[in-house]
Structure formats: structure tokens, C-alpha cells
Amino acid sequence: MREHAQRLSGVERTIFAEMSALAVRTGSVNLGQGFPDEDGPPEVIEAAVAALRGGRNQYPPGHGTPELLDAVIAHQERHYGLVLDRSQVVATTGATEAVAAALLGLVDPGDEVVVLEPYYDSYVAMIQFAGAVRRPVTLRAPDFRLDVDALKAAVTDRTRLILLNTPHNPTGTVLTRTELEAVAAVAIGHDLVVVTDEVYEHLTFEQEHVPLATLPGMFERTVTISSAGKTFSLTGWKIGWASGPAELVAAVEGAKNWLSYSSGAPLQPAVALALDAHDAFHEALALDLRERRDLLCAGLEELEMRVHRPAGTYFATTDVSAYGHRDGRAFCEALPAMAGVVAIPSQVFYDPAPTGRGDEGRHLVRWAFCKRRDVIEEGLRRLREADLRA
Ligand SMILES: Cc1ncc(COP(=O)(O)O)c(C=O)c1O
């Protein structure tokens, strides 16, 4: 059955759960999976408890509770000057479902989807579920910037959609306004829809996040996706949303209808409260994450790994080729025994060789810094004391 699921999705089962289980089994420090080990605002959690006790336990409206829709609308206007109405927002079971529903709702079998590689792993599975063909545009080490010529070259007359992700997991790249203008020019020039996954929108450090939908001519062809998970350190809640022009949102909602129909009744009002009242939470989180990024990156640099210091997200990337392992996967598989630490081999975010592109990520390893400071320090202490060579 597992092989069937793999064939259907085109990818192995998500590696993150496997690596987190490995961390528990081996008593390792988990710098692998991207979830914070501190929960989001207590008042927001209390609001969910109140909603549970207050009878918000039956199916909510399929497209979202009024509070959440209004809170997303207010958030988009307050932060980005985008003015929406309720027909232009749909609540989803996390950004993951929003991406799935956008692809299923907007792409026909045989269509091509241009997508940044390395990719968040659900993209590969969902493009395949939609019967579409992925056309990767690779962000290459060491800087992981967008190669605009490669983007232009990836578009054909079968391209239906560009699937973008900024701030980008796993590289931490935050696309600049200039890069986004290039994406916009391609999308407008070829009359493409863009689905943009912006779940790390508030977790940027030196560089400001620019939503693609704010560029001239882009709102009308863009579905913007976000979720409460990263912004409010509530990754287990799986409350997300997609916004954009009504006809594109209706297509997303049409597919969402047959995936989950509706999402987390008692959690939606709590997320609405978080969006309305907790800008200070994610502002403080971004500052704190920046310090933790610096702590982790400085420690990894001391270990003579080439480190890519990200401008956003939860993740730093290193090249571990200096340690003599066959590749990053072999390094990560050996890491719990060598050092009592778990990290993620970045090659799982690339198309496998022999297309050749797999080689791009072969020696890269992704480390999560959304962990408590003492956890990062302990991970670094273990790495310093270990012999990391093959
Ligand atoms: C780029 C990206 N998109 C989507 C998700 C998943 O978001 P959610 O938990 O809201 O489904 C993640 C989680 O790691 C992510 O990194």
C-alpha cells in the first residue's frame, strides 16, 4: 500500500515525521522538522478552549467562519494594502490543503506547473495528484537566488500556473521586489495564474517580504496562501487560508469542498483573534528567530561547514561535503549515532538524479532554528564534541 501511495504522489512518504521519530527513538536533539518547541500566544489557545466549550463544535461554513474571513481581510489590508471581500478568501486545513486545492482546482491533467526547486515536499505530490507536469526552476547554491532566464525557459505553451514560495523553504530565500517583478512579467506575458505560498510572510529578518499580489497587474491572477502555523507558532492547528480574485478563490473552494469540506471549527475564531490582536507576537518572534538563526549559523560555521544564512523562515542550510560522507542523506542517517542530533538532507527537496538536478542538493543539509535556545546550544555542543567524518 505504501508503494501505491508513493506511485500516486511521486514522492516517498514525507521524511519529516520519520526524522522526528528517529530523534525520539535515539534521544537526539531534533533540528530536523520545522515546528517550534514553544507554543503560540496563551490567549489564543484560551480562545480555542472557549470556542470548544462554547459550542463551536459542528461543521463551520465550508469557506470559513465569518470571524476568520474578516480577520484575513483586515490583515491583508493592514499589512499590504490589499482590499478584499469575503468572496475573495477561503479557509483551509493548513496551507497544505490550500496548495492542494489550488492545484486541483486550477490545473488540468497534462498542464505544466512551473515551480521553484528545491520544493516543499507536498508540491511534488499535489502536482502529481492533479495529473500535471512539474517544470522546476532551481534556486542554486550558494546564494539560492531566482534565475530569471531559467524561469523564462521553463515556461512553454502548456504552462498553466507558476507555484511560488517566498520566503522559501528550505533555502530561506526571500524573493526581492526585482525578482518578483520578473515573475510578474512572465506571468502577465504568458497569461498564467500564480499560486504563491507565503506561510513565512512574517518570519523575515533583514529583508522585507513583498507579497506578489501587491505588484501591478498581479492581484487578478494570484492566489496567495498563508496559515496560522508559522506566524503564531501553532503548527498543529492546521488553519490556513487562500485569498485572491473571487473566481480563482471559487476554484480553490470547489476543490477544498471535496477534500475536507470545512476546517477546525473551534480553531478558526481563535486564529481570527490572533490575526486581529497579535501583530506584536510575530514581530517579537521574528526578532527572536533572527537571534536563534545567528546562534545556530555561528555554531555551524565554527564546525567548518559552509553555511547559508537565510533571510527568512525557520531553516539554515549547510554544505557537509567536507566531512567525506557520500551525500547529505548518508550524513543525516549517521548523525544520530555520531552526534545525537537530527537534521534533514536537502536532497529530499530536489528532483532525484539522474535528471542531474538532484546533484544540486546532494551535499546540502537543512537545520531548523525554530527551537529553544538551550536546545540549539545542546545540539551545537553535541556536534562540536562529535567526530562528524565518514
Ligand atoms: C513552504 C511551506 N508551505 C506550507 C507548509 C505547511 O503549512 P500548514 O502546516 O499550514 O499546512 C509548510 C510547513 O513546513 C511550508 O514550509
In words, what does this structure look like?
The protein is of the alpha/beta class. The protein is 43% helix and 15% strand. The two termini are 35 Å apart. The mean pLDDT is 94. The site of pyridoxal-5'-phosphate has 14 residues, from helix 5.
Report Rg.
Answer: 20 Å
Whole-number mean pLDDT = 94
Major β-sheet strand ordering: 2-8-7-6-5-3-4
Secondary-structure element string: HHEHHEHEHEHEHEEHEHHHEEHEEEH
Biggest beta sheet attributes: 7 strands, mixed
Q: What level of helicity do the residues show?
A: 40-55%
Q: Oligomeric state of the chains?
A: single chain
Strand content: 5-15%
Envelope shape: globular
Structural class: alpha/beta
Counting DSSP E segments of at least 2 residues, the number of strands comes to 13
Distance between the termini: 35 Å
Helix count, per DSSP? 14
Indicate the topology:
Layout (H helix, E strand, L loop, with lengths): L1 H8 L5 H12 L2 E2 L11 H12 L12 H15 L8 E4 L1 H13 L5 E6 L3 H9 L3 E6 L9 H7 L4 E7 L11 H13 L3 E5 L24 E6 H4 L8 E4 L2 H14 L7 H11 L1 H24 L3 E3 L6 E5 L8 H12 L1 E2 L1 E2 L18 E5 L4 H13 L5
Helix pairs in contact: 3-11, 4-11, 5-6, 5-10, 12-14
The structure holds pyridoxal-5'-phosphate.
